[in-house]
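Mods, move this if it's the wrong board.
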Amino acid sequence: MLKTDSSTSARSGTIETERGEIQTPVFMPVGTQGVVKSLSPSDVQSVGAQIILGNTYHLYLRPGTKVINTAGGLHRFMKWEKPVLTDSGGFQIFSLARLNKISDDGVEFRSHLNGDKHFITPEKSMEIQQYLGADIIMAFDQCPPSNADLKTIIQAVDRTKIWTERCNNYLQNNHEKYTWEQILFPIVQGGVILDLRKKSTEDVIPFAQCGVAIGGLAVGEDKPAMFDTIELMDELLPKEQPRYLMGVGTPADIVQAVKRGIDMFDCVMPTRNARNGQFFTNQGKINIRNKKYKSDFNPIDDECSCETCLNFTRAYVRHLFKINETFGLRLASIHNLHHYMNLMQTMREQINIGDFDTWSRTFLNNTE
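Not the wrong board. Structure tokens:
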């Protein structure tokens, strides 16, 4: 860690990979299928992204690991030379796949694309991620929905422990497919039941050498319960390793989580909302489709220095959305990702100068 805030658990740090350093707190744009939708790799780099996320489930189904391996790995396939993290695919199997059937061995599921049957084990997830060649790979875990009963959550915690050990054993006996090192992040489960979170942490920490993830949040639970869980994680997780809160979230949620010791984030929100015409600005969210922007020749956000705001007006971007022009999706995605990256940079700076607590209170008062 570079610096820890004196009044909160916020901290800044550096994650070192063979593809370069990652300054934390960090937000990872989601490139689920080997692309951040509507954007080129240079677009993503231009907004300040340090690392992007790909998804094992989707890339396994299309284009398949053989194609990506033949291309030389995901970095070369998509022409992104900075670090990549891949999710294990478990969450998508449980949420997207048709008729999934979970056992201690793994998960049998039918593809959401064509109904073909597949079986993914912890070992298979590791093998796929080795072929993808991501710098950070995620352990295969069971992520129960927020409305799951106690028995299901307990079972998910127990399976996650067993599956994490199997992931680790596979990696110990099967070396990387490429020349660079791959780092395994185990995932803590347990819903918002604090005793189960504590048990899951104790189960998987032995496999956390360079980082650990918190899964099973931002899946529909109440915000206070989510933040209580994150506070517990701050007490239990190793201080010297980065903590990755999966699937979060809004700018306010990210600031709240950084206050509680979280270092890494990913979420589809900035790009998905962008494609629906919703822009994050320093003055709040705006829906560019609204009629009031038809003759508004101001930038999306006059405090923003992204390509979109420096060159185009609200009226023009609204016009692009009204005619369903894909250029509008690109401009919107660039702006929203830039907004998120600027937020992360601001937090790093505020932590480093020792003013994070005051800054975050002002930010949250103006946002919520």
